[in-house]
Design brief:
Elements: H1 2-7, H2 14-42, E1 47-52, E2 55-64, E3 75-81, E4 92-95, H3 125-137, H4 147-152, H5 156-169
Antiparallel strand pairs: 1-2, 2-3, 3-4
Length: 177
């Protein structure tokens, strides 16, 4: 019986099955377009994000370290991958720029509750970027992905030294003529 219903001309065959996915994709596309416009008009120089090429489901984001933190003056790139169920499911967000931080592992994965179990459809790209920016200066030391960074967090001079060493180890030396 179900086989007849799926393939019958009255239900549109496989096109009917694909329609919800296509409609969902259009809805997500519209939501992401709106979020892009909001970000562009917000005028916040400390964060930005744009789709990579024509793929609205994959963005490159940029955040700068907050004033008064050990990350002040540093800029980090992030990769945001949006599922077709966005905003009802969190995007996958990782650091593209190596980041020495208690809640970031060597692969750029981020331990942040709003990207996992505390995700809500009311969050958007801007709130994600702001949350990660805030996390830089205020890590969750109870849930570290980088134990070494967590262990030296409270020793600011040692932490800053390790942060800059990590950054320089992952930055190509400029060529001199």
């Amino acid at each position: 019986m179900s086989q007849t219903a799926i393939g019958s001309p009255t239900t549109g065959g496989s096109k009917a099955a694909a329609a919800p996915s296509s409609a969902a994709g259009q809805s997500v596309n519209k939501r992401l377009q709106t979020e892009l416009m909001t970000l562009m008009t917000a005028g916040d120089p400390s964060l930005s994000a744009f789709p990579e090429g024509d793929n609205i489901f994959q963005w490159t984001g940029t955040i700068t370290g907050g004033a008064g933190t050990v990350y002040e003056g540093l800029t980090f790139k992030l990769l945001l991958k949006f599922p077709t169920s966005y905003p009802f499911e969190a995007p996958q967000v990782t650091f593209s720029t190596p980041c020495f931080h208690p809640n970031v592992d060597q692969y750029g994965n981020i331990c942040l509750d709003i990207l996992k179990e505390k995700w809500s459809a009311v969050y958007n790209v801007r709130t994600i970027l702001l949350s990660i920016q805030s996390l830089l200066g205020d890590p969750n030391l109870d849930s570290p992905l980088n134990g070494h960074a967590a262990s030296i967090w409270h020793n600011v001079p040692e932490y800053k030294k390790a942060l800059l060493k990590h950054k320089s180890a992952h930055t190509a030396e400029p060529r001199r003529p």
